[in-house]
Design brief:
The complex is a heterodimer of chains A (407) and B (310). With 407 residues, chain A is mostly helical. Chain A has two domains: 57-147, no CATH class; 168-405, no CATH class. Chain A has helices spanning 2-20, 23-30, 33-52, 64-81, 101-106, 129-147, 166-192, 200-204, 207-214, 217-250, 264-292, 296-319, 327-334, 339-349, 354-381, and strands spanning 57-60, 88-91, 114-118, 123-127, 397-399, 403-405. In chain A, the strands form two sheets. A four-stranded mixed β-sheet of chain A has the order 2-1-3-4. Chain A has a two-stranded antiparallel sheet with strand order 5-6. In chain A, strand 1, helix 4 (64-81) and strand 2 (88-91) form a beta-alpha-beta unit. The two termini of chain A are 43 Å apart. Chain B folds into two domains: 2-219, Rossmann fold (3-Layer(aba) Sandwich), CATH 3.40.50; 224-281, no CATH class. Chain B has helices at 42-50, 90-100, 105-118, 134-146, 164-179, 191-197, 215-220, 261-270, 285-293, 295-302, 306-309; strands at 2-13, 16-27, 31-35, 57-62, 75-78, 152-156, 183-188, 200-205, 208-214, 225-230, 246-248, 251-255, 275-281. In chain B, helix 9 (285-293) packs across helix 10. Chain B is elongated. The chains are: A mainly alpha (407), B alpha/beta (310).
Chain lengths: 407, 310
């Protein structure tokens, strides 16, 4: 065991230094900047477009007095509930009352989504299904308020601010849980995917046989996995430093997350632990699968289904955030590929700590199981012919040394 | 005492028996050649002996242990298909290979530099592998194989792809290691290398061992060949020439009779054959190989590989 760890350290150290001091690592660090920049730009553009789009307008074809009272009521209520929560009203000329509403809606110059006719006592809203369903309630409320504007004086609400409330706290912790899950998932996917191609260099360069003859294959897998984990932490440290720098610059503009149930220090610690476990679980699987692949092309072929499978796991974990204690949530906590995500969600919502010890032990055991299976398959399928990593030609081609294809 | 013992090793791949019941005994301190054509099962056998793969059947012990990897610190291995990390410096590569075999990294790096100096490559110690010529890179890999002073060195087709100069250097290195008492096993499909270097050989063909023993024993399987030129073509001396002798003009070619050389010489002189030329040649390993493994296998051995052509 000690010898395996020593050998894993030798291999891990070589891999880590080779990666960290490569030019490719610099570009890898820059990698997340691109989606952030693109996302930011897309968000800005989207916001601008949303602002530029005219809100649907409801044309008011009532008597002059009813129209005036309706617009006044809208103005008063908008000050209380917000401009965007009420439909935009446009007073039409009195002559419009003689025109069928359908014609008013057809006239592109008006640009109306619906036409409100009748009286305040009996308003008539004409339009397509969407606007009618959207504005029916608001129109009724505005008409009632307009009709009784003098009698309905809105009282001033005295407000008393408290630090927290049980109901609100629970709701907010869901946000912390979900945000952390998303962060863990993005980091895991971003970083663990690199493990897929981790053995390709050794196989392409035929170094794998030197390694396999010198140390147990478990040490090779373990060393590579932990080298990539160390590389991931370097990447996260760099990104976190940049992120905190930007957060300090932007100040209070950034939203702050509610305090998780276990408190921030333990939550951050558990976040690091669960990221490590998620990375190791996914990484060991990727390493095992990637080890079967003989070429970069095979690795690329593999990455899509693996990513999709991981997305399904993530969605399952996301789904269980609001299902604490239910069977589906317990399953997500036990199922190794969702366990780290489900457990960090638990940490945000439940202060009990002992389940985390069990979960981490179970996840670590599963990492070892995947590694052993990966090593077994590698030794069984890859080291076959006179050429390391080359699949023996038996009249057909073999994909990843496992599935025989007609050839 | 044997450095390696193998009994009934079998390895199948997809139903194909790549190795089919191989027995081997490699004495400590010997230079041992594994001869066979490409695809004979040499590499698979070596991989099983070193513990890279496990046999389906049979047992093997390496330096006294039935868990070969546990002895890896005492073993140096140069695989058939050479490969190195292209971005790694030469000295670091040797140090890495030493560290894999249990050496402290600093010590391995220092020893690696010494070995490079001895090999005349000291100036290239800090160059990346990709900056070295193919021959230099192969030398670096070879130095990485011996940096930790192993007791057993296993070389799989070590002469493949080397030019004549580097082949000679490699032969010198093998002899130097053997003089230190190191056991050396190498596989080859070139009989001449085995003939020059080995005390013992195993001939493998189609996954089976056809012969395992001293090179001299292999050769002794064939009688010496006599090549005789006479002035006269007839006389009483003709009775001493075997009936199956091949005659080409005044030349006679035949296997030395069981009675030996002396009665033959006496008969030739007393019978006034007029001997112009006489040579008695001990058969070479190639002839022995043909006799042991058959013409077809020998023809496969003689066929050059792609690496030989490079």
């Amino acid at each position: 065991m000690i010898e395996t760890i020593r050998a894993a350290f030798v291999i891990g150290r070589r891999d880590f230094t080779a990666i960290i001091f490569s030019k490719a690592f610099f570009f890898f660090l820059l990698g997340p900047m691109f989606p952030l920049l693109v996302g930011g730009a897309a968000g800005l553009l989207g916001g601008q477009v949303a602002r530029d789009i005219d809100r649907p307008v409801v044309g008011v074809a009532m008597s002059a007095e009813d129209s005036r009272q309706l617009l006044a009521a809208r103005s008063t209520l908008a000050a209380q509930v917000g401009e965007r929560r009420l439909p935009e009203l446009k007073q039409l000329a009195q002559s419009a009352r003689d025109v069928p509403p359908e014609k008013l809606l057809d006239d592109k110059a008006n640009g109306l989504a619906a036409v409100l006719g009748g009286t305040l006592q009996k308003p008539v809203l004409t339009g397509t299904r969407g606007p009618i369903e959207s504005y029916q309630g608001e129109v009724a409320m505005l008409s009632a308020f307009a009709k009784n504007a003098d009698a309905m004086v809105l009282p001033t609400v005295e407000t008393r601010l408290v630090e927290r409330s049980a109901g609100n706290e629970k709701q907010k912790r869901l946000v912390t849980a979900q945000a952390t899950q998303v962060l863990l998932f993005i980091l895991t996917m971003l970083l663990a995917g690199m493990v897929l191609s981790n053995l390709v260099e050794e196989k392409a360069n035929k170094i794998i046989e030197i390694l396999a003859a010198a140390v147990p294959m478990d040490a090779v897998f373990l060393g590579k996995l932990f080298a990539m984990l160390a590389m991931a932490f370097v990447g996260i440290a760099v990104w976190a430093t940049v992120g905190f720098g930007l957060a300090n610059l932007s100040g209070p503009a950034l939203p702050s997350l509610p305090t998780p149930a276990v408190g921030w220090p333990i939550f951050v610690l558990l976040g690091v632990v669960y990221f490590t476990m998620a990375y190791l679980i996914l990484g060991s699987l990727f390493l095992g699968i990637g080890a079967m692949a003989a070429t970069v092309r095979e690795v690329q072929t593999l990455s899509m289904p693996v990513t999709m499978a991981q997305l399904i796991n993530f969605f399952l974990a996301m789904y269980t955030v609001t299902k604490m204690g239910e069977p589906i949530e317990l399953f997500a906590c036990l199922f190794p590929f969702t366990s780290p995500f489900a457990m960090i969600s638990r940490a945000a919502q439940d202060a009990t700590l002992w389940p985390h010890l069990l979960a981490v032990a179970w996840q670590a055991l599963f990492v070892l199981i995947i590694l052993r299976v990966g090593v077994y398959l590698f030794r069984r399928n890859v080291m076959k012919s006179g050429s390391a990593g080359r699949i023996k030609d038996t009249g057909g081609k073999k994909l990843f040394g496992l599935v025989k294809l007609p050839g | 005492m044997h450095a390696i013992e193998a009994r009934g090793l079998v390895k199948q791949f997809d139903g194909f028996r790549a190795v089919d019941g191989i027995d081997l005994n490699v004495p400590e301190g010997s230079i041992y050649g594994i001869l066979g054509p490409n695809g004979a099962g040499k590499t698979t056998t070596i991989r099983m002996l070193l513990g890279i793969i496990d046999p389906d059947e049979g047992t093997r012990t390496l330096l006294g242990s039935d868990r070969p990897l546990s002895q890896s610190k005492l073993v140096g291995y140069l695989p058939e298909e050479r490969g190195l990390y292209q971005s790694m410096r030469a000295a670091d590569t040797i140090a890495f290979m030493g560290a894999l075999r249990g050496m402290p990294l600093k010590e391995a790096e220092q020893r690696g530099r010494e070995l490079m100096e001895e090999a005349g490559l000291g100036y290239a110690a800090d160059r990346q592998i990709r900056q070295l010529s193919k021959g230099m890179a192969q030398t670096v890999q070879l130095l990485g194989t011996i940096v930790h002073d192993p007791k057993l060195i296993v070389l799989d087709e070590p002469f493949s792809g080397l030019d004549a100069l580097n082949q000679a250097k490699l032969e010198r290195m093998i002899r130097a290691q053997a003089e230190r008492g190191v056991t050396i096993i190498f596989s080859t499909h070139v009989i001449a290398h085995a003939e020059r270097l080995c005390e013992r050989i195993a001939i493998i063909a189609k996954g089976k061992v056809s012969f395992d023993g001293l090179v001299s024993t292999a050769r002794d399987r064939l009688r010496p060949q006599v090549h005789l030129e006479t002035e006269n073509l007839d006389g009483p001396w003709r009775k001493t020439i075997p009936a199956d002798a091949r005659q080409e003009g005044n030349w006679w070619h035949f296997t030395l009779p069981d009675s030996g050389a002396e009665p033959l010489l006496t008969a030739l002189v007393e019978g006034k054959a007029g001997v112009k030329s006489l040579s008695i040649e001990r058969p070479g390993l190639h002839d022995a190989f043909v006799a042991i493994a058959g013409e077809d296998t020998a023809a496969e051995m003689d066929a050059p590989t792609a690496e030989d052509l490079l």
